[in-house]
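User: Structure please.
Assistant: Input sequence and predicted structure:
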Amino acid sequence: MTRETELEMLDAVRGRTTGPVEPVRLKPDDGFCFHCHKGVPCWNACCSGADITLTPYDILRLTRRLNITAKDFLAEYTVPAMWEPAGLPVAKLKMCGEAGEGPCAFVEDEGCSVYDDRPVTCRYYPLGRGTFKTKDAAAEDDFFFLVKESHCQGHVEAKTQSVEEFRAEQGVADYDALNRGWMDILMKMASWKTLGGPYGKDVNTRTKQMFFLVSTDVDGFRRFVFDTRFLQTYDIDDAMTERLKTEDETLLQLGFDWLKLIMFNDSHLKMREDVLHEAIAAARSDMGAM
């Protein structure tokens, strides 16, 4: 019997790639040859015409780097898109030129002007990352694969490293950790749309809007948490409430947990007991129960 699986590719490949994906799953200790530096003939070539979906932590890091609001960042540097496998809205990095074939707005002759805060897709290149989860598994299983585009000369460089050494050098650990909840949601929705599930239907427009808000605008989500009855509805202690006022990363995790609750009824976040009892009583009343 076929087991239900959830699979999501964090696409470290540009959407219009002309090179092949090597059909080999790489483990953390597997090695490969690659070195990108200013001396390679293709310097900055991979920074044009790129199809890069921005993760929540990408946006958080870049807005801090540029010292602008998420609203201004989205308006100037991104284009709205739909991640079709899950049917959920995302933000993509805007490329210059007609039809998005030009360079990234952050690329200069010397390289990336926001290099220390560059998106995780840029950090992973030329590796792709896949996340695989069987139906009954407690955790996801990550694997990696190599992409060789025709223009890229970094693959002929002599430098050899393991996947884990490359990941450490590129500083992807924080990005992977902070984006995990977001990827879980994309995986679940893609799986249910493809394979079916308890709620294997498209989510409503309001939920999609909230998914986009949590994913792209941490300050907007903070206003939602503190300016509505959110804190009176969910079981969040005082210490955590104080952290949510200033810790953006903690607020992101709360946002992902909340989305999992309202979309899949699957989360560590719980409603307060009194609110839950009121909801149960109201539901029984609506059904005519005594």
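Residues 173-195 form the longest helix (23 residues).
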